Amino acid sequence: MADAVGTPFTLDVNGLTIAGDRWAASGDAGTTLVLLHGGGQTRHSWDRTAAALAQRGHTVITLDARGHGDTAWAADGAYALGDFVGDLLGVLRTLDGPPPVLIGASLGGITSLCAVGENPGIASALVLVDVVVDAEKKGIDRVTDFLGAHTDGFATLDEVADAVAAYNPARKRGRNLEGLKKNVRQRPDGRWYWHWDPAFIRGEDRNEARIQDKGRLGAAAVHVTVPTLIVRGGKSDVVSDEGVAKMLERVPHAEVADVSGAGHMVAGDDNQVFAAAIEDFLDRHDL
C-alpha cells in the first residue's frame, strides 16, 4: 500500500471557506475518520496521526476550525461553541457513505461531543482527546493564558519554539523549526504571529464562557450512545480522575485510555501510543 498523503480541499460552510486535508492510501475505502484540532492549533497537528490511520485503510479528514489555519476568520467574531458545532455539521452533510468516526482534541473534542449528543446518527463513534465536561479550571486557565500571550508576535521562529517549550516543558524542544511554520504566519513586518484569529480569545471571558458551556456539554453528553473513547493524557492538568469519573456517570459505556507520558496535547506528546489506542478502539468496534 502506498504511503498516505494529505490532499488539500476547501468547503463553503455557513458563509465561511473551511480548509482541510483528505488522507487516503491508494485503493482504500475504509471507515471515514474526521479529526478536529484544539484551540490555537491547525489541522497539521494531526498530520502524523492522519498518515498512520490512513495507512491502516481509513479515509481521514483533517479540518481547520473557523479562525484557524487556512480556514476563514469569522468577520463578526463568532467563536462560540454553537458556531463550531454548526460548521462541523455543515461539513458532515457533504460526506458520502456511513456516518464517520469523530476524533476531537480539546476544542475539537468539545465540538464533537456537543454535535454527537445533540444530533443522533451523525457519527458512528466518538473519540475525545483529553476532553471531559468537568475540566480543571487551573488547566483551562493555563491554556488560555498561553493562547492569549504574544499577541504582538515573535521576532524569530526560535522565539516561537521557546514559547511552546515554556508551555510544555516535558516535550523535547525540536531543533528543526520548519514545522512551526504550520502554526504561525509571517506578516510583512517580518514578525511571526499565531495562525489563528486573535478574536478567538478576546475580552474578559477569554472565550471560556463561549466555549466551556458546561451546561450544554453536560446535557449533550448524556445523549451520546455511540461507542466512545476518552484518551487522557496522564500528565494533563485539564482532565483529572474526578473529571473522568463524572464523565463516566454521563456516558457509562465510554472507555478510557491513559497515555501516561502525555500532557493535554496528547497526540503531539506521544503520537505512537496515542495512535495505537485509537487503532485498538476502532478494531474492537469493527470500525
Summarize the structure.
The protein is an alpha/beta fold and 287 residues long. The protein has helices at residues 47-55, 81-92, 107-118, 137-148, 157-167, 208-211, 214-221, 241-250, 266-269, 271-284, and strands at 5-13, 16-24, 32-36, 59-63, 101-105, 125-129, 184-186, 192-194, 228-233, 255-259.
- Main β-sheet, spatial strand arrangement: 1-2-4-3-5-6-9-10
Q: Name the quaternary structure.
A: single chain
Order of helices and strands: EEEHEHEHEHHEEHHEHEHH
- Give the total of domains: 1
Number of strands: 10
Give the uncertain stretches in residue-range form: none
Please state the second-level CATH architecture. Answer: 3-Layer(aba) Sandwich
The first-level CATH class is given as Alpha Beta
> What percentage of the residues does DSSP assign to strands (E)?
15-25%
Q: Major beta sheet, specifics?
A: 8 strands, mixed
List the helices and strands and how they pair.
Layout: E1 5-13, E2 16-24, E3 32-36, H1 47-55, E4 59-63, H2 81-92, E5 101-105, H3 107-118, E6 125-129, H4 137-148, H5 157-167, E7 184-186, E8 192-194, H6 208-211, H7 214-221, E9 228-233, H8 241-250, E10 255-259, H9 266-269, H10 271-284
Parallel strand pairs: 3-4, 3-5, 5-6, 6-9, 9-10
Antiparallel strand pairs: 1-2, 2-4, 7-8
Helix pairs in contact: 1-10, 2-3, 3-7
